Amino acid sequence: PTTHYNHMASRDLTLAKQAYGLNDADLSKLAHSSAGGEAHKSGGDFVKNIIFGGLDGIMATFATVAGVEGAGLSPDSVLVLGFANLIANALAMGVGDYLSEKAENEFVKNEMKREEWELDNYIEGEKREMIELYTNKGMTNEDATKVIDIMSRYKKIFLDTMMVEELGLMVVDPDDSPLKQGIVMFFSFIIFGIVPLLAYIFGFTNVGNEILFGISIGLTGLTLMGLGVLKGHLTSQGKFRTALEMLINGGLASVASYFVGWSLERLI
């Protein structure tokens, strides 16, 4: 489930990220003293779906293109097999993401109901479990008891903390929508997955297979690097490194697909 925070952070989150990236303690102090800070984002919202769907879409489609080209088939075969693969996999990814997210949310909600029932019926037992957890993490028994005694006065806070500390489960965001996540995954897969086919869509009657394949390689490589830059920006990682990682991963998958197609064409 998506991590979610309903409060406004008392800091400038953008500035705080810059301070971390620059290892600048003074800038971090300034970020935390800024009034009217930004809200913490809910675990990236749909970032995972966009990047994962886009990466999987473009790599899966280009792997199909590379395999067909390796087998020496015609451009229209590339289009037919490419689009068939694109639509089928996009549906599978979108539906799969929806079902898996829905199942996970339902599991967490059921566990939360159970923990709430236990809390309502035997709060002392739950407090004792939490005290043990905190003492195992290094707190003294006296301090852990004080913390839990205070926290247990606030049922929602205590229940949310129990979910994380006892079960390792993040509380489900009430605005979280598995259906929306599945739809975003589907369209991200389609939008990025169609990139390797663009050369064949707009120019397969005018130039040779080698040129079309070269254009497809170029478009795919640039898009993979763009996804890497986006990932680096959103996760505050080095953009060049994440772009290179995307390119290398896509390249390895494509080379493997090309040689599989090339080998099968000679064996059959």
In short:
With 268 residues, the protein is mostly helical. Helices cover 77% and strands 0% of the residues. The protein has helices spanning 13-22, 25-33, 47-70, 75-121, 123-136, 141-151, 155-167, 178-193, 198-203, 209-235, 239-267.
What does this structure look like?
- The chain has 268 residues and is mainly α.
- 77% of the residues lie in helices and 0% in strands.
- The chain is built from 11 helices and no strands.
- The protein has helices at 13-22, 25-33, 47-70, 75-121, 123-136, 141-151, 155-167, 178-193, 198-203, 209-235, 239-267.
- Helix 1 (13-22) packs antiparallel against helix 2 and helix 4 (75-121) packs across helix 5.
- Mean pLDDT is 80; it is low at 2-8 and 36-43.
Structural key phrases:
11 helices; elongated; 77% helix; 268 residues; mainly alpha
Provide the fold topology.
Layout lengths: L12 H10 L2 H9 L13 H24 L4 H47 L1 H14 L4 H11 L3 H13 L10 H16 L4 H6 L5 H27 L3 H29 L1
The structural class is mainly alpha
Reported for the largest beta sheet, the result is: none
Number of strands: 0
- Radius of gyration from the alpha-carbon trace, in angstroms: 25 Å
The coarse silhouette is elongated
In whole angstroms, the N-to-C terminal distance is 47 Å
Percentage beta strand: under 5%
On the 0 to 100 scale, the average pLDDT is: 80
Helix count?
A: 11
Can you write the helix and strand succession as a string? HHHHHHHHHHH
Helix percent reads over 70%
List low-confidence stretches.
2-8, 36-43
